[in-house]
Amino acid sequence: MNNKIHDFDSLTEDFKNLGIKRDDNVLIHSSMKSIGEVEGGADIVLDVFIAYLADKGNIALPAHTWRQINLKGEHTVFDPEKEPSCVGILTEMFRKRKGVLRSLHPTHSIAITGKDKEYFVKDEHLIDTPCGRKGCWGKLLDMDFKIIFLGCGTKCNTYIHGVEEWRGVPGRLTEYYQQLKIVMPGGKIFDRPMRRHWDKNDRGVSENYDKIQPYMEERGLVLKGKFGNADCIVEKAKDIYNVTAELLEKNIDFFGNE
Question: Which residues pair with residue 197 across a beta bridge?
């Protein structure tokens, strides 16, 4: 058992050792608990990310709300200032940070700070699927983002939802549009009909997203390391896209098959 207390300096060194450069664009999926004890707590973890990247690059965390704005239709209004993220304490704290922008997507928003943050979130309210190609999830590919899975494994790889959308995998989106609403800056309500993620055969497809890992590793496209106590995986969005697209070309239901 590792009882070391981590701090800003040690975690900054860990971040550097993950192959992250100061001008990189990085999206982080995270488990705060996996990091271990940190002097200053979760705020220090966020300080490390922001101090390392925000001046020359961009740092983003998912700020999803699909859990509460769900297919049941009981809650259909997304207020980006108030709606909590459902994907971990670091994401919830990050979206509230001064200087952080949150994209106006009612179910799969991303929070970001850095030199390109305005461009990254621009026009996200116009996207009518969870991970549209012209929205933030597509910009991960266009802007050559690295994706870090920090203590959480790769089953949570939302980006693959996007690749499946863009490659036209059948049975991944509802045929109908759910009538959602977005509270825009200034308080105006914007109607956003939205197709939703849907697994036609109820197989838990996203639970299979780690099936890509052996293919990534055999091509040398995976960097592994530590951040505090957390096991980390670092991959490039373009590499994930290319390998996933190749696998889907051979078997369009690659992630749905057992």
Answer: 173
Residue from 218, 103, 82, 97 nearest 158 by CA: 103
DSSP reduced 3-state for 211: helix
Give the pTM. Answer: 0.96
Q: Assign residue 219 a region (left: φ > 0; alpha: ψ between -120 and 50; beta: otherwise).
A: alpha
Contact status, residue 56 vs residue 115, Cβ threshold 8 Å: yes
Cβ atoms of residues 58 and 112 within 8 Å? yes
Residues 6+ apart with CB under 8 A from 58: 25, 26, 112, 113, 114, 115, 116, 117, 120, 143, 145
The one-digit pLDDT tens for each residue of the chain (258 residues) are 567 999 999 999 999 999 999 999 999 999 999 999 999 999 999 999 999 999 999 999 999 999 999 988 899 999 999 999 999 999 999 999 999 999 999 999 999 999 999 999 999 999 999 999 999 999 999 999 999 999 999 999 999 999 999 999 998 999 999 999 999 999 999 999 999 998 765 557 888 999 999 999 999 999 999 999 999 999 999 999 999 999 999 999 999 865
Phi, psi torsion values for 245, nearest 5 degrees: -60, -40
**Rounded CA gap, 138 and 33, in Å?**
29
Q: Letter for the amino acid at 78?
A: F
Which residue type occupies 44? I
What does residue 101 show for φ and ψ, rounded to 5 degrees? -105, 145
Q: How far apart are CA 66 and CA 164, in angstroms?
A: 18
∠ CA(201), CA(134), CA(153), 5° rounding? 55
